[in-house]
What does this fold into?
Amino acid sequence: MWSTFWDGEKFTRYSKPLKAKAYYLNHYIDLLTGASHPFKFDQFKEYLETIKLQTTEFEAKRIFHLFYEAGYEFNDLEFSSDDTLLVLELEYERQDKWTPITSSTEISLRPLKGVHKRKYKEDFKKVQRHLKNGDCYQVNLTYDFEFAINEDYSADDICSKLWAKRENISPYAHATFVEELDLLLLSNSPECLFNSRVESTEPVIWSMPIKGTLPRTENWKRDWEKLLSSNKDQAELNMITDLLRNDLTRIELSASRVVKKNEPLLVPKIIHQYSLITTRLSQDANLLKVVRAMFPGGSITGAPKLKVMQIIKDIEKRNRGAYCGSTILMANRMCNSSINIRTAVVDLKNRKLNYSAGGGITLLSNCEDEFLEMHLKKDSFIKILIS
It folds into this structure.
């Protein structure tokens, strides 16, 4: 079992687990012993409440993988399935530098499942009806893509292929391999849910929502001008910036402010636009307050968040799982949390890779454009693996 994180300059590999728990609605499994224990998810919330953000040194090497469905529990929405994984908690004893394996290995994939354009159009129309009825003003619509892995590869083989070239590494790239489940969670995410750092006596917290997507060409500045001229993309970013500003303020009713707006973000094969929003917290701020206010991220739900989460559940009729969840790393005076887009879950035993993609739908959205954007996001990840 190990986890690997990119810090902007290098990868760090965390290993030798001290704790590994998989939390469900009414029990948890100790992955180090295989034993299952009765446990109410409310107890996990109480546990997060004990983790203070003003701590000068966060407990080293602690990782939480929050799966999307945990968002229903944190927001007191109905969720009744006890066989759905909600959170992975991992603590490690050791950390080392990790470097991708130098190899000519090509990952061979065969498509098994996707979404037909006819089905996408039907769901797009359902979203548009909700928008026109005034139920919401943005919905993030997503789909599963499944691939067969044609040969046996190790977890490090797959990670190394994705990150062999620096230009293919996104700002919040990370991976976790759970040998007990023969499972690899592989994320090349460009987006953070929140970051927190201790400054003098007060923690500072910020978020960086992303909206707007175009293929990135050699002349990225021209691509950027195209994004800036899109009324739809600007409206979408403005909506989510306002939602995240509100989420940050809700943590402790401390006013947040937009530090940057409509900035370019260059990630593998794609250009996005983002905003940067920040606020200060009290010394009593804890992880539960932050997660309750901000998870799941507004950019992968829509607005208003709680209503849209119910709409998504009704239309998508599936669990998103690790995709659109968040990963929290606590170490070295920092608490960093990604939004797990551009994320695959790899079943190494059965040689399958599951990847999801989608995008935000507004009244100004065009069905054909959104369908193509979804595939652009899928291809930005998959084509790196198979190239």
